[in-house]
Automatic annotation (TrEMBL):
Annotated TM spans: none
Recorded catalytic activity of this chain's protein: D-fructose 6-phosphate + L-glutamine = D-glucosamine 6-phosphate + L-glutamate
Keywords from the UniProt entry: Aminotransferase, Cytoplasm, Glutamine amidotransferase, Repeat, Transferase
Compartments (UniProt record): Cytoplasm
Protein's UniProt keywords contain Transmembrane: no
Location of the SIS domain: 43-182, 215-356
EC number: 2.6.1.16
Function: Catalyzes the first step in hexosamine metabolism, converting fructose-6P into glucosamine-6P using glutamine as a nitrogen source.
Subunit structure of this chain's protein: Homodimer.
Gene symbol of the encoding locus: glmS
This protein's name: Glutamine--fructose-6-phosphate aminotransferase [isomerizing]
Cellular component GO terms held in the UniProt record: cytosol
Naturally occurring in which organism (per UniProt): Flexibacter flexilis DSM 6793
Length: 366
């Protein structure tokens, strides 16, 4: 059942070219300029006309929501708030009739996310669910939604569900932006094409497995890790840190790279591995200076960069080169090496990768 892999997590990481394709199948055809999400049809105008969008989720799904915030705001120009479902539900949140709430959940059973949408629904919000498990409670409680179609995810650490969530949310954002006229035709078509090419590029990122295993071996005994990214790669930093802590029990923190100066920089010394997600995008120059700041304090830098980068390899201790794509969908590629890094470190430390201590696959009690 593990398809020849040692763990479900590794199988699910390697399934991603396929699960991302499955998620786009029948929905996206860049050549024909075709993008359809059946579950959105009835509600698209409500989203197009929404004053704001709220996203509620927990854990990795919250990270996917944070990627979606950046994508939605850039392309649709609708303000987006991403909320931890557990905080949102107990804060007497401000919800108006007609507000759009997007709930993201792999299992569709997370207690806080379910309670958050029930609350929003009772105040007149429209709920759009992005779930993986068909017929799950959150899917049923939503007015509309799109399944991620990633297939069953068994490993407690979420991997293929994350990339499928980001894929669905990108398609929703592009549809809304196109309908709204907030994106140019040229940019819309370019993004459809780039999205369609993601599975092939994820395959290339997976081919770095051996090299990542080598890096994992060097850092497996570290006591702390810092993950830094900017812009679209900031949520990827959070996700990389979560993956490492939950399965390897190494303390890790994800931060927006520029926030480093406001505290975490004090932690940096020759013992501190810092993973930079530093692909070639609009914040490239800025992150290069953040790498220099870490090197000046003797931190060990592992950098995920775009293929062909010539500058960062001169500064970093280790580099991981991933294929280029549009910066808005880079998280679909840049997260792959981080999943593999945490996987190998956890295996080398003898941890139970598929069922880490204290964790359950779905958190059905608050
Ligand atoms: O099923 P859900 O997507 O609602 O689950 C949310 C979180 O419990 C989940 O993402 C958790 O953080 C994972 N263990 C992360 O790998």
């Amino acid at each position: 059942e593990k398809g020849g892999y040692e763990h479900f997590m590794l199988k699910e990481i390697f399934e991603q070219p396929r699960s991302i394709s499955d998620c786009m199948r029948g929905r996206l055809d860049a050549n024909r300029g075709h993008l359809v999400l059946g579950g959105l049809r009835e509600y698209i105008n409500k989203i197009v006309n929404a004053d704001r969008i709220l996203i509620v989720a927990c854990g990795t799904s919250w990270h996917a929501g944070t990627v979606a915030e950046y994508i939605f705001e850039e392309f649709t120009r609708i303000p987006v708030e991403v909320e931890y479902a557990s905080e949102f539900r107990y804060r007497n949140p401000i919800i108006k009739e007609g507000d759009v709430v997007i709930a993201i959940s792999q299992s569709g059973e997370t207690a806080d996310t379910l309670a958050a949408i029930e609350l929003a629904k009772s105040k007149g919000a429209i709920i759009f669910g992005v779930c993986n498990v068909v017929g799950s409670s959150i899917a049923r409680a939503s007015h509309a939604g799109s399944y991620t179609h990633a297939g069953p995810e068994i490993g407690v650490a979420s991997t293929k569900a994350f990339t499928a969530q980001v894929t669905v949310l990108t398609m929703v954002a592009l549809l809304v932006a196109h309908r709204k006229g907030s994106i140019t035709e040229a940019r819309y078509h370019e993004l459809l094409t780039d999205l369609e090419q993601i599975p092939v590029k994820v395959e290339k990122a997976l081919a770095l497995n051996k090299q990542i295993e080598y890096i994992a071996d060097i850092f497996k005994d570290a006591r702390n890790f810092l993950y830094l990214g900017r812009g679209y790669n900031f949520p990827v930093a959070l996700e990389g840190a979560l993956k490492l802590k939950e399965i390897s029990y190494i303390h890790a923190e994800g931060y927006p790279a520029a926030e480093m100066k406001h505290g975490p920089i004090a932690l940096i010394d020759e013992e501190m591995p810092v993973v930079f997600i530093a692909t070639h995008d609009s914040s490239y120059e800025k992150i290069v200076s953040n790498i220099q700041e870490v090197k000046a304090r003797k931190g060990k830098v592992i950098a995920v960069v775009t293929e062909g980068d010539t500058l960062i390899p001169k500064m970093a201790d280790f580099i991981i080169e991933v294929p280029a794509t549009n910066e808005a969908i880079m998280p679909l590629i840049s997260v792959i090496p981080l999943q593999l890094l945490s996987y190998h470190i956890a295996v080398m430390r003898g941890c139970n990768v598929d069922q880490p201590r204290n964790l359950a696959k779905s958190v059905t009690v608050e």
